Amino acid sequence: PLLISNLFLSSNLLSFFSLLFSAVLEEAHGILAELQSYNGAGQEIREAIQNPGDLALQEKAWNAVCPLVAKLKRFYEFSLRLENALRSLLEALTSPPYAPMQHLEREQALAKQFAEILHFTLSFDELKMTNPAIQNDFSYYRRTISRNRLNNQQLEAENEVNNEMANRMSLFYAEATPMLKTLSNATTKFVSENKTLPIEDTTDCLSTMACVCRVMLETPEYRCRFTNTDTMLFCMRVMVGVIILYDHVHPVGAFAKTSKIDMKGCIKVLKEQPSNSVEGLLNALRYTTRHLNDDSTSKQIRALLQ
Ligand SMILES: *[C@@H]1O[C@H](CO)[C@@H](O)[C@H](O)[C@H]1NC(C)=O
Ligand SMILES: *[C@@H]1O[C@H](CO)[C@@H](O)[C@H](O)[C@H]1NC(C)=O
């Protein structure tokens, strides 16, 4: 238990640090900062739409939107890299001969990276969800492109985001929680591609991490070691992230009686946290899980999430 409790607090990362993950995670911080300061071109777009005959305003809006779309493309491309990083992590955490629990204990650095990826994912989605400018900017961009295509004009920016890329980005940003969806798709794919690997190896790894986070949040001795609210938030996000992945990958999901995740305990401890992010995380459980509305979900759990 001591080892487990050190999982996320441990500062002496074991030698397992691979360059790939540290590069991805380093970039993740930059992406979050960029998204945080993403203000959108709402004003320019409004003016352009209200004055369709004013070419200068059309151009102004277009010039404001193009660099933003380049940013959105970078975010999207990062989601693809994150997907690859997650695959490698899952591969490492489930590789024989060790059981998932042993992997987590032996390779705490890997577990920590997994946690960091989930933390990034939920932070990104939280920011995206509260920023309507993203979809507004992107749909303006697409409308402008298709209008100009009809007029047979070639737009320079089409080289940057061609039609196929725009379609894929559009699907990505249409998701309420695009990064989480990317990860759960990737986890599902990982499990289905590795038929020889028992599904439990992957889901046990996820339920173990959920358990570690829950225990850390519930136990006063651990909680007082959280030097700042960031660590608490980190734990909360990771717990919710692994629950959602588990629910997508496991055949009966996280809410069933047979689930290896103590959902009642997780939801209760989440609700007790003094943080502005609680509601967003509860919403992630409500709206991005697959099995919450199954008959097998107990009334108690439903009531807790109501
Ligand atoms: C996840 O997979 C579904 C089904 O294959 C697909 O429609 C959706 O676009 C994917 N979402 C992301 C964000 O990859
Ligand atoms: C999972 O599948 C991938 C690709 O098919 C393969 O490279 C990898 O070794 C498999 N991993 C395990 C643990 O079976």
Automatic annotation (TrEMBL):
Species this chain originates from: Sparus aurata (Gilthead sea bream)
Origin organism lineage: Eukaryota, Metazoa, Chordata, Craniata, Vertebrata
Example of a GO MF term: small GTPase binding
Descriptive protein name: Family with sequence similarity 49 member A, like
GO CC list: membrane
Keywords: Lipoprotein, Membrane, Signal
Family: Belongs to the CYRI family.
Keyword Membrane: yes
Subcellular location: Membrane
Pfam families assigned to the protein according to its UniProt record, in alphabetical order: CYRIA-B_Rac1-bd
